[in-house]
Amino acid sequence: MRTGIAKSFLFFAAVLVTFTACKDRNAEKRIAELESRLAEVEGKKAAANPSPIAATPTAAAEEKPEGPLPKIEFETTEHDFGTIKEGDPVEFIYKVKNTGEAPLIIQGAQPSCGCTVPDFTKDPIPVGGTGYVRAKFDSNGKQGVQNKTITVMANTWPKQTVLRFKAMITPKAGSAGPVAH
Asked: Which regions are flagged for Low complexity bias (predicted)?
């Protein structure tokens, strides 16, 4: 019973952290900590109550696939937009190169919050070929330093690559900015 409550609490905490990620620079770290705690609780539960049902492949740690693999290489994984005005949309294109031994397929791109919209090369990128991941950031309603991420999923090893960008956003004229003391 306690592990069920603990699991529910950790799940709720992870969801809460996910929804507040737009405002918190340390959200990714906290999510990883919560996921590791959840895995620990589930591991203790499994050890205490062995189940005759075998673990599903998704529950097991992923192993590196055999055979030739694509390799995703970015010119840069970080970008600084510098200082921009609140409400100004900005975008940056992360250039991708396939330096592996098989065609590269970008399967998806997940932003850290709704203020960022990613786009990416949809067609397979041949060995030696190039593509892109575009980050469009809407600074409307944002102020101060903003740090955002886009997690790119591809048929590579490892499967995920994290792209980062930041911006210093100054308030619109006439808007209530941070209060000076």
From this structure: 46-60
